[in-house]
Amino acid sequence: MTQESLEHEVVIVDDGSTDDTANVVSRLRHQYAPRAIKYVHQANAGPSAARNMGAMHASGDHLWFLDADDALVAGAVQRLAAAQAQYPDRVLLFAGYDSINRQNERTAHRAAGIANDRTVNFQRCIKGRISGLTIGSAVVRTEACREIQFPEGVHNNEDVVFFAHLLARYPAVAVPGIAVVKYRHEGSLRRNLERIEASGLDLVDHLFDPNRLNPKQLGLRRRFFAKRCLSISRTCYLHGEYRKARSYYERGIRAYPWFLFKGSNLRKYIRSCLRGLIRSGRG
Does the residue 51 lie in any domain? Predict the structure, then answer.
């Protein structure tokens, strides 16, 4: 709300909260008039549904999604607006961001990793090799968001699906500087084992949608599925769920045997087997 430009609107989506969000919005409307502030309330449906709802009610040419724990830096709107004017053909523009954890430790994530080839960008995105691209740091052309939406029902890495599909189909550009500060906390969805399990492999189906990707991009599915299995295996291992950890690891190796040579995952698998034997012995 403290950004200098008066030309943008703000759409606040209340995703079934039980606090006084409506009253806060009312005060903001009075405090920041004549800025356009829209308030939309919906039953709790998760972050993807909330973002899609916000996009539906937006009237501008570009969309900038922000989460509750994001704070735009001074001049962020002007920086991205200038980049949009410089690169009018780019559908996705993003700057870097800083993240701050509960110990107040700050980490910089500068925008980088964009190539001219869209399949390369798609591959880099699903491998986590495009630095700086996240919710809060990116501006997307509205018409693209009408076609490509956030996957509802996916509660972990839903932003990866959204950005990967955009990069697979549209040109993008990384902008120097930072746009947002993201405040991380231990209760984030990324650390919730149950939600990671529930949406972990569904993510693969959402990501490799034949209606969104070309054959070359779809050809990356098997490797990504295996990597996803190993990632969930690691999460289960760290939570002491050794049987689940072994199951996900074995599924990943069956899908892509070359990952057998990933030493860190193999060591965790062996440890999980040993600890499983110890538990069964105690039983």
Answer: no
Final residue before a domain boundary, out of 191, 207, 238: 191
For residues 66 and 185, membership in a common domain is answered with yes
pTM of the model: 0.89
Using an 8 Å Cβ cutoff, are 156 and 189 in contact?
Answer: yes
Structure token digits, residue 236: 């289960």
Instruction: Look at residue 40 and tell me if it is in a domain.
Output: no
| Host domain of residue 258 | 220-282
Please tell me the distance from the alpha carbon of residue 206 to that of residue 199, in angstroms, as a whole number.
10
* CATH number where 74 lies: 3.90.550.10
Q: How many CB atoms lie within 10 A of CB 47?
A: 21
Where do runs of H (alpha helix) occur along 36-112? 47-57, 76-86
Which parts of the chain fold into alpha helices (H)? 21-31, 47-57, 76-86, 118-126, 142-147, 158-169, 193-200, 202-207, 215-218, 221-238, 242-255, 263-282
pLDDT at 196: 74
Instruction: Convert the pLDDT of each residue in 91-115 to its tens digit.
Output: 999 999 999 988 899 999 999 999 9
In a domain, 54, yes or no: no
Q: What is the sign of the dihedral through the CA atoms of 132, 91, 208 and 47? A: positive
pLDDT tens across 142-166, in order?
999 999 999 997 877 899 999 999 9
List beta partners, residue 122.
Answer: none
pLDDT bin (cut points 50, 70, 90) of residue 34 is low
Can you read off the two tokens belonging to residue 167? 């990069």
Q: Nearest 10 degrees: CA dihedral of 83, 84, 89, 92?
A: 90
248 contacts: CB under 8 Å, gap ≥ 6: 229, 230, 232, 233, 236
* Total number of domains constituting the chain: 2
